[in-house]
Design brief:
The protein is mainly α. It has one domain. The chain is 77% helix and 0% strand. It is built from 15 helices and no strands. Helix 1 packs antiparallel against helix 12, helix 13 runs antiparallel to helix 15 and helix 14 packs antiparallel against helix 15. The radius of gyration is 19 Å and the shape is globular. InterPro entries: EamA_dom, EmrE-like. It holds the Pfam family EamA. Keywords: Membrane, Transmembrane, Transmembrane helix. This is DMT family permease.
Length: 287
């Protein structure tokens, strides 16, 4: 199957998991829902495991995996907190900053400067972020930017986007030293186990709560499983930057789901802003 199809399915799966997670956050804390994302994914992976070849694993695989683990846990907890306290349409678009951060870290570490297309892409991402809160411009030109800082969920998602610029590349290395399906299964079990230890300290009556909404939780787990498999399959077939440019279509799906299921307001301006940010990602990543 073409890498684009995997990346597109991944984008849709991310948006569905985000919308379902936000629904689950109505009655549950962010720690529990963070665990659900992978705790309910791991059992689904069991059915796949007998059909998966176990690759030879080297030291690089284990080093990279355990570097990924704390970063992914921090990112996931912040992610859940962000979509819990703020609208999907004001948080998810900021994931578009990941490729911008990738350009920044490449310049700092390697001295690589973006070309004209890259600069235009950065400009579009900035314009898109500005448009997310364009309604506040009547109070002053800089108000849309100030509104970002005032929205705690947006700030948290910006931090998540920066962490993702690191984990995306680490994840690709882990896949290169194993296989996409094997790593999906292995990592979902590992991540859910460590998250459970954290959640058990933060959530009272955890065993009753993790089965309190089984149907909703199962759908979250299934969506996350599809997201993980298609994500890792896509980056095994193409450069990370190309995959990310398609995967970030999830931002547009997320804005739509925010309007459909959570009655979020000002959707036209937020969709326009998110669409321009996605266009910026494409210019940065593909051209």
């Amino acid at each position: 199957m073409n890498w684009f199809v995997y990346a597109f399915v991944c984008a849709l799966s991310v948006a569905i998991a985000d919308a379902l997670s936000k629904k689950a956050l109505i009655n549950n804390d962010s720690y529990l829902v963070a665990w659900v994302r992978f705790g309910y994914t791991a059992p689904l992976m069991v059915f796949i495991f007998p059909f998966v070849d176990i690759p030879r694993l080297d030291g690089v695989f284990f080093i990279i995996t355990f570097l990924l683990l704390p970063l992914d846990i921090i990112a996931l907890l912040l992610y859940m907190r962000a979509i819990n306290i703020s609208p999907l349409s004001l948080t998810l678009p900021f994931l578009s900053l990941t490729p911008v951060f990738l350009i920044g870290t490449s310049y700092i570490i390697l001295g690589e400067r973006p070309d004209k297309t890259g600069f235009i892409g950065i400009l579009l991402v900035t314009i898109g972020a500005y448009l997310l809160n364009i309604r506040t411009i009547k109070r002053g030109f800089f108000e849309p930017l100030k509104a970002i800082a005032k929205e705690k969920g947006s700030v948290l998602m910006i931090i998540v986007a920066f962490i993702f610029c690191i984990t995306l590349n680490l994840g690709k290395i882990a896949v290169q030293h194993s296989s996409p399906i094997f790593f999906s299964i292995f990592y979902s079990f590992l991540l859910s186990s460590f998250l459970f230890l954290i959640v058990s300290f933060k959530t009272k009556n955890i065993f009753s709560k993790i089965v309190s909404q089984p149907i909703l939780f199962l759908f979250i787990g299934f969506s996350t499983a599809i997201m993980m498999i298609t994500h890792l399959k896509a980056i095994s077939l193409v450069e990370v930057s190309y995959m990310v440019s398609v995967k970030r279509l999830s931002l547009l799906f997320g804005v739509i789901f925010g309007a459909m299921f959570f009655m979020e307001t000002n959707i036209k301006e937020r969709f326009l802003g998110a669409a321009i940010m996605v266009l910026g990602i494409i210019l940065i990543s593909v051209f």
